[in-house]
Structure formats: structure tokens, C-alpha cells
Amino acid sequence: MALTPEDLKDLHYSIHRMNSVAAVFRMRADNAMNDKFSALADLIDLYVMLCQHSVSQGRDFVRDGLAITEEERTEANTLFERVFEGSPPAAPAAPAAAPSGKDLK
How far from chain centre, in Å, is Cα 50? Predict the structure, then answer.
């Protein structure tokens, strides 16, 4: 079903609002100095970009979802993993050496 002028207006308004939220989130993420928060900002940016692309292709991203390439899916999965999965645990630190007898004097 082709998008009507009213559909386009609503979708462009949604994208405009998402861009506003994304810009504020990006600014906060950059100040947080947290890799997971920054990855979430990147994931939001990717989603908004995909929505814009969908509308430019004449598709309603709200009603029909997003058609994404395998490369975009890989990028989204990588960002998702950065946001929601923990980092591998660091190797335990070597135990401190026991004090020698002459260190106790």
C-alpha cells in the first residue's frame, strides 16, 4: 500500500522526534564515558537511520517494520551485544608476596 501524504507527514514527524531524543541521548552518552551507554546511543542512531531509509523507499516503518540488509543486521547485533552482554572477566591478579622475616623488623 502506497504511503499517503498524511502517512508521510506522520512518519517524518516521528523521525524528527526520534532524532531530537537521539541527539540528547548522544550528548548524555558522550558525557557518561561508559562504553555500554555509547553503544546504546549508536544503536538508537542506527534505528533512526533505518527508519529514514525506509520512508525514503516508500515504506511505513511503524506498520511494516524495517527491511534491513545483512550488514545492518550484523551491526545491530554487535551493538546489542556491546550494550547487554558483559565483558569477559579479567584474569585474577597475582597474590601479593608474603613478607619476609627481615621486612617485619
Answer: 13
